[in-house]
Design goal:
The structure holds two protein chains of two kinds.
Chain A (H helix, E strand, L loop, with lengths): L6 H16 L2 H10 L2 E7 L3 E6 L6 E4 L8 E6 H8 L5 H6 L3 E4 L2 H11 L2 H11 L9
Parallel strand pairs in A: 1-4
Antiparallel strand pairs in A: 1-2, 2-3, 4-5
Chain B lengths: L6 E6 L4 E6 L2 H7 L2 H13 L14 E5 L13 E6 L6 E6 L3 H7 L4 E5 L6 E6 L2 E6 L8 H12 L8 E4 L2 H4 L7 E3 L3 E3 L4 H8 L1 E7 L9 H16 L2 H9 L3 H9 L20 H7 L1 E5 L9 E6 L6 E5 L3 H6 L9 H14 L3 H16 L18 H13 L4 H4 L3 H8 L9 E2 L2 E2 L9 H9 L11 H6 L8 H4 L10 H18 L12 H12 L5 H21 L29 H12 L9 H6 L3 H7 L2
Parallel strand pairs in B: 1-6, 7-12
Antiparallel strand pairs in B: 1-2, 3-4, 3-6, 4-5, 7-8, 9-10, 9-12, 10-11, 13-14, 14-15, 16-17
Helix pairs in contact in B: 1-2, 2-20, 2-22, 7-21, 12-14, 17-20, 20-22, 20-23
Classes of the chains: A alpha+beta, B alpha+beta.
The complex binds iron/sulfur cluster.
Chain lengths: 137, 625
């Protein structure tokens, strides 16, 4: 049993965070430069979030399983949660199959510096939105 | 002899005599190759002499390939050389990539044992089963690129490929204590000053060319394994990452956890960092990609800067360690200056880690008033001064100006500057720590402290195992999850990595980067398929353990003691900010557990019982009073 008891909580919580990121120019501008479309497929609970950076603003769509994504990332909700705190050993998670990526790896790697500021945004967002119980670090 | 050329070349530089010995198959089975051969042969060559000058004729130099060197197998191009280090005074072995090892084997030799010293510069030419010493006066003074080009050019013609060149540059000739030996310009026996050992012996270069391929015991098993691995390589994101961006990828990955030291290890975050990442590398330096023999991973970069103060022509580009040591460690955000400093280090033949760390140490001494403009010959050693950095690299290679003092390494420089500067040191056993922060992964602290060559991230796979690049689900002690900033259980992890690593990284010889998708059982199968031996995983861990105890014993022979199994204060000072803020490895706990596991006495010497049990009784009298 993971940290999140239902899909709705996780969907709203992480989806909301992605929207916050989409509205943060410092990060969003770099995401838009990448023109990437990414589908995050989470398990335990099962949630799908689609991030579309191909237009002139970053779009976040919950449950979009139809649109073709350039990159698909698969992981558990717990690993995803930990990741946004900057607490996942990314190399280990990838070599141990805790995170799987399908698509052009260089393009994914290019996003790493862009999302660096989000690691400090995440705990602040959780507190602000009343998800303090999930602020585990 | 399957997997081996079957011959060891012995060169006595004092009398100029060369001799060939047949490789004993039972010796090969016991010591596997690479570092296993190197330490055993070095120890035998010492013949009980322990009081030898690292820069004297009594210090042998041994270079050995492994059973897989020369096979067309990803991440298996490597080979090993070792000697007593002029920087640290203890044992040093270096794991090297490139093409030289493969071509040495194709020429008919598994390795070379070099003794004595020549009075005049010499080079050793090896070609198709023959070897000869030649006068090298005309190459003495040339940098490693000029020497490699000249020797490779001379060998062209006759319809065969070019000679592969392993050479020192001016730094080795000038006995810079962290001089390297350079293979084909960009593959270095980088650390602990083995280049100065050659400089003292007046050995300028070894060239190798051959066309013979060692026999393979079970070619069908080897191709089945290659088929199995093909899929693993194709689906490995790690491999894709280092193929795409080289080791520079780690700049973006390592910073997330706080693994990249900045400002002489006082910070793990700094706003200038983004100017040194893989994307900026691509934009400002990247000029091509290179690889080692038979490896499709091709993690090596070529770099160039066409104009400006740091212009340099196309050549091997900086690795992650260099981006950090000449970049973040000195707060230098100019990646072109890092490229230039790297180019100079390659040409002079110098270790970028030790030099970058010694410059960062000097910058802190300058800031604290222990060094003045008068001391530095007018060079302003303020943090981030890229011009000063490049100038000092140049001076060090030539042993000129303030570079003369840097050429001695940070520990000796601190000795000159006074006790108070010890607080700025980052050395273990005299070797400057590489660019991975033990406050972020506590196992690195123990690995640095107990490595036979000092602070080192390559001698065992502790670093890639703990940070995630290597994963061995088939070794129970390495299959579990490990919390980086926790010291519990790390003694067992480090000991097991050292034992297995002495087989995997040290003797087989796999690459800690390019062999990421290879499991432990697949590694054993690769060696068995090539050699025809019937090793089991347990057996190679046991053999690795024996090899590791030999490495350790050699450092004890050269005076290392329990007191040297320690980290400098700087690496144990908690950071105030960043992902590892407040984290400090518990050295007392880890060392206590480790000494018990290893059966060391309080002086850090392996007990006679453990050495006997490992069949190393001959070593007991060398290390026990
Ligand atoms: S991964 Fe890189 S260093 Fe390792 S063998 Fe391949 S090219 Fe050489």
């Amino acid at each position: 049993m993971g940290l999140f008891k239902d899909a709705e909580t996780f969907d709203t919580m992480l989806g909301g965070f992605f929207l916050r990121v989409a509205e943060t120019p410092e990060v969003a501008d770099k995401l838009l430069d990448s023109k990437l479309t990414i589908r995050f497929i989470y398990s335990d609970p099962e949630v799908v979030l689609f991030i579309d950076c191909s237009g002139d603003r970053v779009e976040v769509r919950s449950g979009d399983t139809d649109t073709k994504a350039e990159v698909e990332m698969t992981m558990s909700a717990d690993i995803a949660h930990k990741f946004w705190f900057g607490k996942v050993n990314l190399t280990a998670a990838l070599t141990r199959g805790q995170m799987k990526a399908k698509g052009p790896v260089p393009k994914i790697l290019k996003l790493l510096p862009a999302i660096k500021p989000t690691y400090t945004m995440y705990p602040a967002y959780l507190e602000e939105k009343g998800y303090g119980e999930y602020n585990i670090y | 002899m399957n997997g081996y050329a079957g011959t060891i070349l012995r060169v006595d530089l004092t009398n100029g005599k060369l001799k060939e010995d047949k490789l004993d198959p039972s010796f090969a089975r016991q010591y596997i190759g690479g570092v296993g051969f190197v330490v055993r042969m070095y120890l035998d060559e010492l013949a009980g002499k322990t009081d030898i000058d690292p820069l004297g004729p009594d210090n042998p130099f041994v270079l050995m390939t492994g059973p897989l060197t020369g096979q067309k197998l990803d991440g298996a191009a490597r080979w090993v050389c070792g000697s007593r280090s002029p920087l640290t005074g203890v044992w040093a072995d270096c794991n090297v990539g490139g093409f030289f090892g493969a071509y040495l084997k194709f020429a008919g030799y598994d390795g070379i044992v070099i003794t004595g010293a020549s009075r005049t510069p010499v080079l050793l030419r090896i070609e198709e089963g023959t070897a000869r010493l030649e006068d090298a006066s005309r190459y003495w003074g040339m940098d490693t690129y000029e020497t490699s080009d000249a020797l490779a050019e001379e060998s062209r013609g006759g319809g065969r490929g070019k000679d592969r060149v392993f050479t020192i540059g001016p730094a080795g000739e000038n006995l810079v204590r962290f001089a390297s030996i350079v293979n084909d310009k960009g593959h270095l026996a980088g650390r602990a000053g083995l280049g100065a050992v050659w400089g003292a012996k007046k050995l300028k270069a070894i060239t190798a060319f051959g066309s013979g391929k060692p026999d393979i015991a079970h070619p069908e098993r080897l191709s089945a394994l290659k088929g199995e691995l093909k899929e693993a390589y194709e689906s490995s994101i790690y491999i894709d990452a280092i193929h795409s961006f080289g080791t520079a990828t780690y700049m973006d990955v390592g910073v997330i956890g706080g693994d990249i030291p900045m400002k002489n290890w006082k910070l793990s975050e700094w706003e200038g960092f983004d100017d040194l990442g893989p994307l900026v590398y691509e934009e400002k330096l990247l000029a091509g990609r290179k690889t080692c023999y038979g490896c499709s991973v091709a993690c090596k970069r070529e770099a160039e800067v066409l104009q400006g103060p740091y212009a340099f022509p196309k050549g091997p580009g900086p690795e992650y360690e260099t981006l950090a040591s000449f970049g973040t460690l000195c707060l230098n955000r100019d990646i072109e200056a890092v490229g230039k400093a790297n180019d100079l280090c390659n040409r002079y033949g110098m270790d970028t880690i030790s030099l970058g760390a010694t410059v960062a140490f000097s910058m802190e001494c300058f800031e604290a008033g222990f060094l003045s403009l008068e001391d530095t010959g007018g060079i302003d050693l303020s943090w981030g001064n890229a011009d000063a950095l490049v100038k000092l690299v140049d001076q060090t290679g030539k042993r000129e100006g303030f570079g003369r003092r840097l050429a001695e390494g940070s520990l000796r420089l601190s000795g000159e500057l006074g006790e108070e500067t010890r607080q700025f040191l980052t050395t273990v056993k005299g070797l400057e720590a590489p660019m991975h922060d033990p406050r972020c992964y506590h196992s690195f602290a123990l690995a640095y402290a107990t490595s036979s060559r000092g602070a080192c991230h390559t001698q065992s796979p502790v670093f890639p195992v703990e940070s995630g690049g290597l994963y061995f689900p088939d070794i129970p002690g390495l299959a579990g999850e490990s919390e980086g900033m926790d010291s519990h259980g790390k003694a067992a992890l480090v000991a097991l990595c050292q034992d297995f690593g002495a087989f995997f990284t040290g003797s087989a010889v796999f690459c800690n980067l390019g062999a990421s998708p290879v499991t432990a059982l697949q590694a054993v199968e690769a060696v068995n398929a090539v050699t025809g031996f019937d090793y089991t995983l347990d057996e190679v861990i046991q053999l690795g353990r024996r090899i590791w105890y030999l490495q350790r014993s050699l450092s004890c022979v050269f005076g290392a003691s329990g007191a040297d199994d320690a980290l400098p204060a700087r690496l144990l000072s908690p950071l105030e900010e960043g992902p590892s803020a407040g984290s400090v490895p518990d050295m007392e706990l880890m060392l206590k557990e480790y000494y018990t596991l290893r059966d060391f006495d309080p002086q850090g010497r392996p007990s006679p019982e453990v050495l006997k049990e490992l069949g190393l009784s001959d070593v007991i009298s060398l290390i026990q009073p």
